[in-house]
Amino acid sequence: MATEAFGLPFEVGTLSAWLVWILPFAAAMIIPGVGKLSKHATGYVAVAFALMSALSAATMIPVALEAHEMHHQIMWIEALGLKGGVLADPLSIIMANVVGWISFLIMIYSTGYMKGDKDITRFWFWMMFFIGSMQLIVLSDNLLQVFFGWEGVGLASYALISFWYRDKKKDHVGVEGRTVLGMLDYYAPTHAGMKAFIMTKVGDVMMIAGMLLIFLYAGTFGFKELMDSTDWAIAMQAEGLLVPAFVLLFGGAIGKSAQFPLNEWLLEAMTGPTAVSALIHAATMVKAGVFLVARIGPLVFALGAAGIMADQFFEIIAWVGAITALLLATQGMVNPEIKKVLAYSTGSQIGYMMMALGVAGLSHQYVDGYTAGFFHLISHAMFKASLFMAAGSLLHIVGSRFMTDMGGLRKQMKKTYAFMWAAGLGLMGAPFITTGFWSKDAIFAAVYTSGNEWAMPLYIIAVLTAVITAFYTTRMIGMVFFGKKSKHIEKMEEEGHHIHEASLSMWIPYGILAVLTIGIGLIGLSTEQGLHHLFEEYLEHSFGIHSSHAADEASILPEFLQGLNPVALGSSLVAFATGIGLGYIFYIGRWVDPIKFVNSNIFFYSLHKLILNRWYLNAIIYWCFVVAPLWLARGVFRYFEKTAIDYGMNAGVQKAVGWSAKVVQGTQTGVSQSYLFVFGAGLLFVVLILLI
Q1: Helix axis angle, 504-522 relative to 366-398, nearest 10°?
Q2: In whole angstroms, how far apart are CA 644 and each of 62, 603, 647, 652, 660?
C-alpha cells in the first residue's frame, strides 16, 4: 500500500521524510553563524539538530512496520520535466533510522572527543553536512537526487579525512619511513583526503554514466517510474546495454563502499578524527554503496519476471563482495594500528553485505539474501560504531595509534574493556548472544541454499573470512588490554600521566551500542525473522517479487533454533571457535610468541610480509596511476613540449622568420630600375604559364 502526493502543501507523514535530511543541512548552514558568537555552542546545535533528524526518522517507523510506503514529489527542473521527491518505504525508513540514531550518538561522543579543538566550528559544519547528504541518498526517490547526496558525502569525506590539514606527524597513518615497492607507506591527512576524493570519483564517473544510459532509454531517473514500465529495459537489453548500465551504477557503490579494486582509500581515511571514522564506517559513506545496491537490486531482479535477465549483474556483486571480504580480512590480521584494523574490518564486512545482496539475485528466494545483507548492515553499524568510538578513547588516553604502544589496559579502563569485548563479540559473531552472529549466519544460509553454480566457492570464502575476523578481533583486544604495559605507557606514567577511563560523554555512546549489540542479539533470531517477513511483504508489494515457501522438514536442531540451516549454523560455530581460539593462543594466553612463529619458516614469513604490504595492491596502484602518469607527463614536457615545441618549433619558426625577413630586406635596394626589372620578370613568368 502506498501513499502518494504531488506538490505542496506537505502531508504530515511525508513532511517527516523531508525533515530527516533537511534538518542536518539546516544545522550546517546555522553553525558558522553560531560559531561567530560561541564555538562551544556549535556542539549543542549539532547534537540538537541530529536528535531532531533522528526523531523525524523514528516517526516513520509505523509505516515501515506495516510494509507501507510514502511517496511525495515536487517539481524540480520543469524544463526537463524532472521531479524531486522522497520515497519512504521499509528499506529507506529503517536505513534512515540507523543513520539518524547512530549519527546522533556519534555527535554526543564528538563533544568530548573534539573538545578544545580550535577548528571545532568547521568540524561540526562538515559532520552535519555529511549526515544530511547521507540521508538525502537514503530518502531520495530518483537517481539524480541520489547523486547530489552521493557527491555531498564525497565532498564531506574529503574535508573531514583531511580535517587536520596542517599534516602534523601525530595525525599521519602508517609507519614513518616504511616503503613498499619503493612507495612510501606513510600518509599525511591532506594526502589521504585527496586519495579518498580521487578514488571515489572513479566510481562516481561510472555511476553517472550508468544513470545517463538508463535516462536515455527510460526518460526518467525515478525509482517508481522505472518499475512502472519495462519497455526501456527491453530496449536496452536488445542493444546489450542493460547489464553494462547497472554494472556502471554498481561502480559507484564500489567506490563509496571501498570494495575491490577501489578499496585502498579506506585505510588512509583513518587520518581524520576518530568520530569521523566512526561516522564513515558505521552510518554514512561506505554504507551508501550497500544501500544503493539494496535499492536497485530488487528492480533488476523483478525485470526477470518479464524475461529480462541480468544474472551477470548479481554475479559481479557477489564476487566483488567475496574478494573484498577475504582480501581485507587478511590484512586486518597483521596491521599494528588499531584504527586501520577496524578499517580493514569494515571493508571486509561490507564485502559480506555485497555478497549476500549478490547471491540474493542468483537465488529463487530473493528475500533470504536481501534480508541477510541488510540485517548485517544494521548489526555492523552498531558494533562498528561502538568499536571505533572505543578505539578513539584509547587513542585519546594513550596518545598513540599503535596497539604495540598499549597493553595491560583492562584494569585502568574497565568500561572500555567491557564494551570493546561486547562489540568485538558482535564483530566475531559470538553464538546466540550477538546481532553479528544472527546476521552472519543468515548470510551463510543464504549463500549455501542459493543453489547457483557459485554457491560453494562463495560459501568457503565466507566461512574462511569469519575465521579470520574472529582471529584479528581477538588479536586487537589481546594486544590492547592483555599482557604487560608497553614501554610507551610506562614512560607516560613516569612522566605523571595517569591512564584513566574516557569522559562520560565519550563512553556512554559506545556503551549504549555495545549493550544493544548483545541485547538485540539475545532476541536475534526473532529479529531476523521479523525483518525477513517485513521485507517479504515489501518486495512483493513494491516489486512483485514472490517468495516460495518450502514445506517444513524435520530438523536435527532443538526447537528454539528451528528455521536455521544446520550446515550454516555449524559453520558459524566452528568459524568462531577456531578464530577466537587461535587469537587466544597468540595474544591473550600468550602461549606462542607471534613474532617467533612468523619467523619460524620462510612460508609464514613471506605470507606475513605479503599481507603486511597490503598484497602490494596499494603500491601497484601508485606505480600505475601516479608514478607512471607523472613519469609520462614529465617525459612529454621534457622531450616534446620543451625540446620539440619550445626549442624546435618555436625557436625554429622564430629563426625562419628572421632569416626570411633578412632575405626580403636584402631585396629592398631602393633602386627603381631593380623593382621594374623584378616586376617585368614576374609578368613575363605569368604570361608564359598562361600560354603553356
Answers
A1: 150
A2: 71, 52, 6, 10, 21
How far CA 145 is from CA of 135, 286, 599, in Å, comes to 11, 18, 54
DSSP string, 231-246: HHHHHHHHTT-HHHHH
User: Residue 84: helix, strand or coil by DSSP?
Assistant: strand
Q: Which three cell numbers stand for residue 256?
A: 563509496
Cβ(524)–Cβ(383) under 8 Å? no
At 5, list the grid cell: 502526493
Which set of grid coordinates corresponds to residue 73? 514529489
Cα separations in angstroms, 278 against 184, 284, 376, 511, 591:
26, 9, 17, 14, 33
Q: DSSP assignment of 641-685, as one string? A: IIIIIIIIIIHHHHHHHHHHHHHHHHH----HHHHHHHHHHHHHH
Taking the C-alpha atoms of residue 279 and residue 101, their distance in angstroms, rounded to an integer, is 11
Collapsed DSSP state (helix, strand, coil) of residue 555: coil
Nearest to 334 by CA among 73, 68, 586, 5: 586
Crossing angle for the helix pair 566-583 and 435-448, to the nearest 10 degrees: 130
Going by their DSSP bridges, the two strands 82-88 and 173-180 should be labelled as unpaired
Supply φ then ψ for residue 140, to 5 degrees. -70, 150
Q: What is the mean pLDDT of each run of 10 residues along the chain (692 residues)?
A: 46 82 96 92 95 95 90 81 88 95 95 91 96 96 94 94 92 90 91 94 95 93 90 91 94 94 91 90 87 94 80 94 96 93 94 95 91 95 94 90 91 92 95 94 93 92 96 96 89 84 91 94 91 92 78 60 83 96 94 92 93 94 93 86 77 80 73 76 83 75
3-state SS class at 73: strand
